[in-house]
Amino acid sequence: xxxxxxxxxxxxxxxxxxxxxxxxxxxxxxxxxxxxxxxxxxxxxxxxxxxxxxxxxxxxxxxxxxxxxxxxxxxxxxxxxxxxxxxxxxxxxxxxxxxxxxxxxxxxxxxxxxxxxxxxxxxxxxxxxxxxxxxxxxxxxxxxxxxxxxxxxxxxxxxxxxxxxxxxxxxxxxxxxxxxxxx
Length: 183
Ligand code: NI
Description:
alpha+beta; Peptide Deformylase; 7 strands
């Protein structure tokens, strides 16, 4: 397993529409394992493949509370089957938009279908933080970021801040940060 560098705003690859996987084979399992390790290391509760610059419809999630047993979820080709009319609000963040948080409203409950790590079709009904997290990650697969769900004013403010930081890093940092790797 290996840690992979996470791309951040304003990297235009975050706006890519990711492609479905044909099936969850050994190569996809390796991708999933690398993603899970990268997500735990960050640390975060969800990561989409495009966040490590891989445009495939693969997501990893673990919303278990700190101190509780891990609940890793490996997801490929997720589809939302239905959404509840009830809305849930969570303060969201994103590993590709570090240190920025904002409240987002989404359907509180969803039905979702996906392929798991063993290429089995799974259908689940989820709510709470997991429902929010799955919707946030599916957005990534469609090139959508959580800041697209907040006010235009707030979105422009955070986008500008990250564009400025990227420009600064480009001007003054000649060597890209070394990527960490481990077995
Ligand atoms: Ni995210």
